[in-house]
Design brief:
The protein is mostly helical. The chain has two domains: 2-144, no CATH class; 150-297, no CATH class. The chain is 79% helix and 4% strand. The protein has helices at 2-54, 61-75, 85-105, 108-127, 129-134, 136-144, 150-174, 202-219, 223-255, 262-297, and strands at 180-182, 185-188, 191-194. The N and C termini lie far apart (71 Å).
């Protein structure tokens, strides 16, 4: 009995060894590719994680990046995925060149974008361009998780401050609150409100735009409805910030100035953000029903 079992054991051991060798042949290139990727892009990766953790304007990246990875994992690799090593290598070489030049110029945004371009190149190398198109939503979420350059944020923040101040002052005037506006300064009887850069609404705009893309990518199927939903996040964010300024001025004038500061001020922001998210969901629901009617007519 033992002599008969021995050849079977040997055959199973040989098959297991061949499988383990096949696994190592498959895993070794992935391991060394990942190691080289970390060595080349370690600096932009570390600085990006640091900004996500420490900068309130970039904190949404802590949510968007893991969510993008989960969505890509759940989406899986399509049956039509085909390796494109030549195209992937060319794009990867371009990403490495951009990484080097941006490192010499100490330009963080370009350096971080080269990290994402290199990741996209690896996807194209291993699975092809169609797979990258299949993962369009995770890719866009990763792009939105990269903080904008300071020059861009400063350029966008001031017009948003002025627009939010005008909306807030208009709402205060509609509620019979004496108000004078000078730029981003709102003057009430006995009080002055300064709409700072932190209150410009840029943070809520980034968050709502990301949520618009996410909701549209998960609930809607047509490109036009997804674009319109993401675009709707822009006026919603501006209106949201204007209402927040109105509430601050209203509480300051009619109730108690202390209610417009500290915890109450942050609570207003969170409450209005939830309301804006609810509005996005309502718009997405309306678009979804419209898509269903258009498909039924076809």
């Amino acid at each position: 009995m033992s002599s008969r079992k021995e050849p079977g054991r040997l055959r199973r051991t040989a098959v297991a060894l061949r499988r383990s060798q096949l696994d190592w042949k498959t895993l070794a290139p992935l391991f060394f590719t990942g190691l080289a990727f970390l060595v080349l892009f370690w600096q932009p990766l570390v600085t990006l994680l640091r900004d996500w953790w420490s900068d309130p304007e970039a904190g949404h990246g802590l949510v968007l990046a893991p969510l993008a990875i989960v969505l890509a994992w759940r989406g899986g690799v399509g049956a039509d995925a085909r390796r494109q090593p030549v195209l992937g290598t060319v794009i990867l070489a371009g990403a490495v060149l951009i990484r080097y030049l941006s490192g010499v110029a100490a330009e963080l945004f370009t350096m971080r974008m080269s990290l994402l371009v290199a990741a996209a190149a690896l996807v194209i190398f291993a699975f092809g361009l169609r797979q990258l198109q299949r993962w369009w939503l995770p890719a866009l979420l990763l792009v939105l998780s990269v903080p904008l350059p300071a020059v861009v944020t400063e350029t966008l923040a001031f017009p948003l401050q002025l627009e939010a101040s005008q909306i807030g002052a208009g709402l205060l005037d509609a509620r019979y609150v004496p108000v004078q506006m000078s730029g981003n300064v709102i003057r009430l009887p006995g009080h002055t409100l300064f709409v700072t850069e932190a209150c410009s609404g840029l943070r809520s705009l980034s968050a709502l735009l990301s949520l618009g893309l996410l909701v549209g990518g998960l609930w809607l199927s047509a490109a036009w409805s997804r674009v319109l939903l993401a675009a709707a996040a822009i006026p919603l964010a501006m209106l949201l910030n204007g209402i927040r300024i109105f509430l601050t001025g209203y509480l300051t004038f009619y109730v108690d100035p202390r209610l417009a500061e500290g915890v109450m001020h942050y609570s207003q922001g969170w409450g209005l953000f939830v309301a804006a998210l609810f509005c996005l969901i309502l718009i997405a629901t309306a678009f979804r029903k419209l898509e269903q009617r258009m498909r039924a007519r076809r």
